[in-house]
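Input set for joint prediction.
Command: fold jointly, output C-alpha cells.
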Amino acid sequence: MDNLAGMDDGDLPAISATRIALNEALRGKERVVEHVLTCLLARGHLLIEDLPGLGKTTLAKALARSLGGKFARVQCTPDLLPGDITGFRVLDPKTREFEFLPGPVFADVLLADEINRATPRTQSALLEAMAEHQVTVDNVRHVLSETFFVIATQNPVEQHGTYPLPEAQLDRFAMKLKIGYPDPKDELKMLEAAASAVASPLGGAEHLGPVFSPGQLKRLQDRVAEVAVGPLVREYLVELARASRGHRRVTLGLSPRGLLIWQRLAQARAYLAGRSFVTPDDVQELARPVLEVRLGIEPEATEAVLGEILESVPVPVSPRVKTA
Amino acid sequence: MSLEARIKGRERPTEKPAGAGPWAWTVGLAVLAALAIEAALAEPGVSVGLTILRGMAWSAPAVLGAIWLRRREGEAVSPLPMAGALGLPALLFAPLVIDGVVRLAGGEGRMLEEVSLAGLRNLGLGLAVFSNRRGLARLAVLVGLFEVLAASGLGEGWLVVGLTAAFAVAGTAWLMGSYWEALPSRAREKGVLERRGKEAWRLGALGTGLALAVVGALALAVWQVPEEALAVLAGLVPSSGGSDQMDEEARGGVGDGPNEVEGRKDPKSVGFTQSELYLDTDKPSLYDAFNDMYGEPYKREKHEPAQAISSENVKEQKERPSENLKAGREFSTVRKAPRASKKPDDRETDALMYVKGRVPAHLRLTSYEEYRDGVWLEAPAGQMNAPLRPERPGSPWLRVEWPELPILAGGVTHTLKIGRLETSTVPSAGLLERFRVGSFREPRFFGWRQDQVMAVERRTIPAGTVVETCSRTFRPAGLRGLMFEERPKLVPARRLESVQDGPVAELARRWAQESGKPRGWSQVEALIDRLRTHAAHDRCAVAPEGCPDALEHFLLVSRKGPDYMFATAAALMLRSLGYPTRVAGGLYADPSAYDVVTRQVRVGKEDVHLWVEVLTPSGVWVPLEPTPGYRLMSPALSPIDQIVEWSRLGWAWCMRLKWPMLGLLGLAMVVVPMRRKLADEAGLLFWRSLAGRRSPREVILGAFRLIERRGNWAGRSRPAGWTPCRWYREMMQEASDGEGEELATLLALVDWSLHAPANAQRAAADLPPGWSAASVVEACDRTLKTWTVDRFKHPSKERLRERSLRARVSVPQLTGV
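C-alpha cells >
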C-alpha cells in the first residue's frame, strides 16, 4: 500500500537521484535533505539559518545543479540595490531604446546568500518575486520561471550591521531549516572524501549533473497538488493554527497563508513518502520548520512552545467529523 | 519505504514548569487557606496553638508532597499523572464518604458545612502538591480563596481575621508575580523575561513580608496599649451590643443591643450571657408545650368514690389552681388531635431552650412510671439516687456521686439556656453527673424530683439562666453484658405493671421470639428496632374518640401515631416481657436545627418528645428511642470502645447480608484479577463477530481501538497530541530489528482508514491498494494476537523469550533443561 497509485515510473529515479546528490553534497543530513525536497515540490521558498561553514551554500548549489535549470547567486550586502536583483533598463546606444537587463531573479534557483545583510528595501524587492513569481520594473511586468525557487541563507550570529527580515518577508518562506554540525562519523567520511578530491571552492558539487528532464519538476509539483488531504487532517491543521494563535508565549500566530503553505508541504511530504493522502505525521514532521519561520516566539523558547502547541491538540484517531 | 524511515522522531517536548517562586508561593497560600478553615471550624474553647497545629498537620503531607514532586520532576513537568487526576476528586469527596460511613456505622457524623469545607481544604492542598503545573497552581489559589472567604464568613476571632489578612496580602503578591510571568515578552534579548519574572517574585516576597510585618506591629501595638485607649478605640467601632444598635434580624447576640450584654430586658436573647438577673415572663410549662404539640387530652369522667364529710371539715379554695400547674400532674395518652398552628412558627423568638453541645440529645424533664387506663402518672419523688456535693468549696459546680458502673461511658457536656420554658428540672441528656445552674451554689437548692431527675427546689429556673451539665452516656458493650431478672422483686410494681394478656403482650412475646435474641439488652434493642419499623410516626394520627384501647389501635390497626404512642407501646411491651421501664418526657435537641453561626441548637415547642427508659439491674435508667425519625445521642466512647463498636456494627451488617456479600466477594476475587483479560476477550470476540460484516475501514479502526486499550493497560498510553506512529516509535526503539512489523502494518492501515479518500464509485472496492477485505481482517487479527498487553509491557519478542528461558533454566534440576 506504500506505492502511490498513478505515480510515473520515470519520476521516482529523478527524485532518488536528487536525494542521493544532495546527501552526497551534505553528508549525514538526510532529514534536512528531505525537507529541502519537500519544500521544492511544494513550490515553497527556503530559508536556511545556521552558522558559517555548515554547508548552506553547498546545499543550494548542489540542488541547483541537480535541477538542471538556471542558477543565480546574489551575495547580499548593505549596498545591494533592488535593481541588482530584479534587473533594470539601460539605454542601448545603437537602437536608442531602453533595454531590460534581467537580474538574478530570472533564474530557476536563486541563492540569496546572507539575506539579512541586504537593506529592507532590497529585501522587499524579493517579495513580489517570491509570492507571485513575477517582477515589475518601470511598470512593466516580467514573469519569472514557473519553478522559481529561492534559497536564502542567514547567519544567526554576527548581528552587527544586519537587517532582520520583517514578518511579512519571513511569511513568504515556506520553511526555515537549520543544518547543524554533522556527526563525527560523517565528518570523518567528509575528510576522507575531500583528501583524495581536487580542491574545489564548490565543495565537490561540480561533478553533479542535472537529474530532472525539462518540465519534469513542474509535473512533479502539479502531482503534489493531487495528494488528498482528508477532513480530519484539515481540521487538525486548523486546530493547530488556532492553538498557535492562542498560545500565551506566541506574539504572532500562524497566518492563513502559513496554513496553506503547511498543507501544501504536508502534501509534498506524503508524496515523497509514496502516499496519496496526508497523515497527521506529515503535519507534525513539518511543524517545526514551518512554524519556526513565521511564529513570534523567543528563540530560546521555540522548542518548548512548539512542543506545547503540538501536545495541546489531540491527534484525530476517530473517523467522526465535527459538524459545523 | 519502511515505517521507521518515515517516522522521524522528535523528542517529546516538555512543559515549561512554574518557577520556584510561584511554586512555593502557591503551596504557602494553600497552607494559609487550610489554617483559616481549621480556625473557622474549631470549636469554641479550643486553643489557638492546637488549631494551628491541626492545620499544620493537614498541610504537612501537601508541603512534603510538593517538595518531593518538584525534586522528582525538576524542570521537565509531565502531564498530570493518573493518580493525581483520580486522587484530587477523591480528596474532595473523601470527607463526605467517611462521614457517610461513620453515620452508617451508627456514629454521629458531622455537619454538611464542615464536611464540605474539609473536602475543599483537601482539594486545595492536593492541588498545591501539583503546583509546579501552572494550571493546577492557579486552581489551587482559587480554591484557597474560596476557602478563606468561607472561613471568614463562618469563623470568628482574631486568628481567622489574621489568616484572612495574610492570605489577602500574600495572594495579592501571588497575582502580581503571576501577571509578570504571563506577560508576553517582545524582548528578544535572552533571559530578559526570566530575569523580570524572578525580580517580580522577589519583590512580591519582600512586599508581602513588609506588609505582614506592618500588620503584625500594629497588632502588637494594639495588644500592648492600655485598656483605656482600647476602650476609646472600641467605642469608634460599631459592634454587637456596645453600640446600642438594635437589629430585627439579630442572631447570636449580634445586633441585639444592650440586652445581649446586660440581659436586662429580654430573656429571649439567644446569647449565652452569664447574667445574674432573673426575669419572669409569661412562659409556658412543659404541659402547655405538650398540649400545643399533641393536642389537649380528653376530659376524663372521674369515677372516684365519694364520702360525705361534715361541713366544718371542708375548706373551700377560693381559686382553682391552673390545670397545668396543679400538683400530681399526669400525661394522658388519649387526646384530641393537635390544632393547626394559627400563625407560622417564628423560630427565633419562641424557643423553649437553646442547647450547645453534642446533639441529638434527649433532655429529660420528667418521667412517668404508672400507667392506668391509658394515662401515665408522673413518677413520685426519687429513691435510687446518689448524694449531691459541691465539686470544690465555693464552686458553683455540683457533682452527683454515682458509683462507677461498667455500663457507663464518658460524659458529654451541654450548655443550655432556658428560654420560654418554665421548668424547675435540670435538663440532662443522660445520667447527670455534674451541673451548675447560674450561681445556685448550695446543694440544698436542689432535690431529686424523680429517679435521676434533678430539679431546683420550690421554684422554677429563671428565664435566661444558663445551665451547664455533664451527663454520662452508656457503653453499648456494657449494656449488652447486663443480666435482667425475669421479674425483679426489688423493683416497685408500678414500673412493671402492664398488659399481661391480650394482643399487645402477645405481640411483644412474638417479637421477642422472632428476634432470636436471649433475654437481655439485645432483646430489648431488637424489640425497639422492631417497633421502629412496625409503625410510622404521625403526630396527628390519634385513636378515634371512644376507642376502647388506644394502644391496641396504634399497634394493630392504624400502625401510625405520635411519639407518645411509640413510647407507651415500647414501655408496656417491655414490661410484659419483665423489663422495668418508664416513659420519659422532655425536649429533643434536633441536629437539623443546628445553627452553624451561633453553634447552638434551638429547641422549640415542636421539639417536645417522649421516649422510653429501661431500668438496669444496677438502678440506672437508660434511654431508648422507639420513635422512627428520632435518634439517640451517640455515646462518648474511648477510642478502643469506639473501634470495638464499629467492628461489631460492621460485622452485624455483613452477617445480615452474608450471602450477597459472600457472592460478591467470590465474584470480585474472580473478576478483579482477570478484569482486563475478560474485557479484552469480550472486545476481541465482539470485533471478530462483526469483522465480516463491517467495512474494511471500520474493521481496521476497531482493531486499533483494542490495541490502544491494551497499550493503556500496559501503562503505555498514547498522549493525545501524539500520532499513533510516533507513539509506536518508542516501543520500536526497544524492539530488535524486524520486530513489530504487524503493528507497523496495522498503523499504516489506520492512517489509510482515517485519511485516504474513499472510493466514491464503488464502496465494495474501498480497500487499500493491493489489499483484499480478507487480508485486511487477517492482518488486523494477526496484530491483535501478537500485541497482547504483556507484549506492550515488553515489546521485544527476544526479551520475552529470554525472560521465559531464564524462568525455565532457573530450576534445571527439575526440568532437566
